[in-house]
Please model this.
Amino acid sequence: MARWGALASPVLVFVAALCAWQLVAVTARPGWLPPLEAVWGELRELLADGSVAEAGVSTLRTLAIGLAVTMLLAAVLAAALGLNDLIDEALTTVLGGLMAVPSVALIPIFIFVWGLSETSVVVTVVSFALLPLTLQWATALREVPRHLVEMSQSFEANRLQLARWVYLPSVAPLLLTGLRVAVVQAIKGVISAEVIIGTIGIGRLLTLESSTFDIAGVWAVIVLIIVASLVSYAVLTWLETRASRWAD
Amino acid sequence: MTADPSVQAAGVASARAVVPGRSSPAPGAASRRKRKAAVWGVRLAFVAAVLGVWQWLGIRDGGIFIATFTDTAAALLDLAGNGSLWPAVWASNQSLLLGFPLATVLGLAVGFLLGRHRTVDRATGYWLDIALVIPMVAMVPVIIVALGLTLSARVVVVFLFTFPVVALNARAAVRVPLAQLEEMARSFEASPAQVWRTVILPGAAAPLFTGTRIALSRAISGMIVIELTLIPAGLGGAIINYTSQFSAANLYAMTLAVVLEGLVLVGLATWAERAVIRRLKGVSRGQS
Model:
């Protein structure tokens, strides 16, 4: 009975929230809260006429390019931090302090330099995700057990074997933890940049709907963004648990 | 329960800051001094490299799209002197001054409630996890429709950026497994208030401070993002203005002002955090 309650209570609260939304929307009719069926209708329309597919592909492409660049840079930086004690001691605090920089304030400069283009969005993604990913990956590298490395070396394991059998299993789960944090940041970066730019991808869709005062349309785009972020987060969490099981 | 991403991100940012350098047992004062010099050498080289590359890019560009570091610094001093900077700082920070305390107080209350009551947490806690993962900036158009181009709209944005971080960190902080200590305190017939004061809060102080510090940098992001999107006020408004005037040095200077504000405020928070935690440790050592 208790277990059933534990499973049902979040669902019940969710349904209650939707009911409250609907109740407020149809009785008080605030301008900012459309009835649920209107949002649903807009959502279906956006999905049917292909505007979501078009905007989504553009946004996902910039997100993917940005993440790829971030991972490349973070791998180099994390290797420097994780494998050299002096650099680690000197720069990890500095980079940690730089996490306080509000990256979103840099977006106007990116737009100033690269225009209202996808390049600006990609650079924004990198600026949002690079520091957290670098610091997480450096932590992951420090977690490699020294005695295993030494033991394998004494058995004359070559570098490739060392990487495959010692480094990879001990860092894989933490690498994915870093990636999960970075993807959350990257999604925030991509949406921030596109909302500020207003002419690209999902951000264009959101700007379009809000400039025509179509509040149901705005909510439909918001629902899409939320679902997409939660799905990618769930996928990465799943990968992470898989990896830690594999590493054991 | 899964680990909170905020807490993990916090760990990365703070783990090093709290424990600067690995505790290598000092082999000798001379070699330690040498090590310290090397560490500062690397830090200075890093800063010099960053500023050098910036300067070089600016010179190569001719200062049209990229203002050099020296031009930016000069422009910032100019803006501070001729009275364009401080009104913008003040206009921006109104939303921070109202939104951040509000989000902190409510976030702590909600976090404590969820951390101490499993059933409530199970039923409602996932909303916070979701709020942390999604890009809040998408909510800006709705907030504008609801509240118009007002200070309240800006305060709400700061609140939305801040509240989930504070609440989730507070929840994690008071949930820290102190069960044994708590049980012992109860078996000595400590009242709930005493348990909170002597067991729960001292253990929670460090993560609470870390959470508040992260929340502060998110609050600054919220404050700026709304000014860059729909309500061109304060620093964000000035940034947009200088962009349209094509004034590179002023644009870079205003952006630098925002960056510096973030670094200074979070730096102050870190300093306060260390001071308080050192005192708490001193107190508990003094009592035992």
